[in-house]
Write a structure and sequence with these properties.
Helices cover 51% and strands 10% of the residues. It has 206 residues and is mainly α. A hairpin with a 5-residue loop joins strand 1 and strand 2. It is globular and about 45 Å long. It starts with 20 loop residues before the first helix and ends with a helix.
């Protein structure tokens, strides 16, 4: 299996004005492509490992040959995290401002009190992450909603958690437009969350 850069589900400028087209282009064609290339390069050493889906590799890193384990963790995590990130965003519309619906909204209310409280906690977690990494909404090992962060390109899959939503808080995700204003980037990002896609991640069997 040779991993390919997944097709971006929208144009580079589709998330304007919240995420600028130039940042999207560089983030996708250079950063995500680099993780893809490095992952494939590492897996060439162990063709039998390359036949396994990346989700399986990340969820069972101890079973990955030791000489490429760190590369799969870093580059495989970068490949999968970015692929997931693109898919939970979309052009700003009523879907983003309305937030989640149905059973997922009920679960957020039950866990966090209400949707504004969830947004506040998620934003606080992302803003407070030291260095580079990601902030996630996941179903934890017990099937409960939780907000968590991972450093660098680590994935919740490694902790046997089910990702529902994520935010990239590496500086390359926002620096061209926001410079050091991470908080502003995070607050604007809520306008491009695709809650229909997040809801599909929630659905049983996905």
């Amino acid at each position: 299996m040779k991993y390919k850069l997944p097709k971006l589900p929208y144009a580079y400028n589709a998330l304007e004005p919240y995420i600028d087209a130039r940042t999207m282009e560089i983030h996708y064609t250079r950063h995500h492509q680099a993780y893809t290339n490095k992952l494939n390069e590492a897996l060439e050493k162990h063709p039998e490992t390359a036949e396994r889906p990346i989700e399986e590799l990340l969820a069972n890193l101890d079973a990955v040959p030791e000489d490429i384990r760190a590369s799969v963790r870093n580059y495989g995590g970068g490949y999968w995290n970015h692929s997931f990130f693109w898919a939970v965003m979309g052009p700003a519309d009523a879907n983003a401002t309305a937030g989640p619906s149905g059973v997922m909204n009920d679960a957020i209310d039950k866990t966090f009190g209400n949707f504004p409280s969830f947004k506040e906690e998620f934003t606080k977690t992302a803003s407070g992450l030291f260095g580079s990494g990601w902030t996630w909404l996941v179903l934890d090992e017990n099937g409960k909603l939780a907000i968590t962060s991972t450093l660098n390109q680590d994935s919740p899959l490694t902790k046997h958690q089910k990702p529902l939503l994520c935010l990239d808080v590496w500086e390359h995700a926002y620096y061209l437009k926001y410079q050091n204003r991470r908080q502003e980037y995070i607050e604007n990002w809520w306008n491009v969350v695709d809650w229909a896609a997040v809801g599909k991640n929630w659905a049983p069997g996905n």
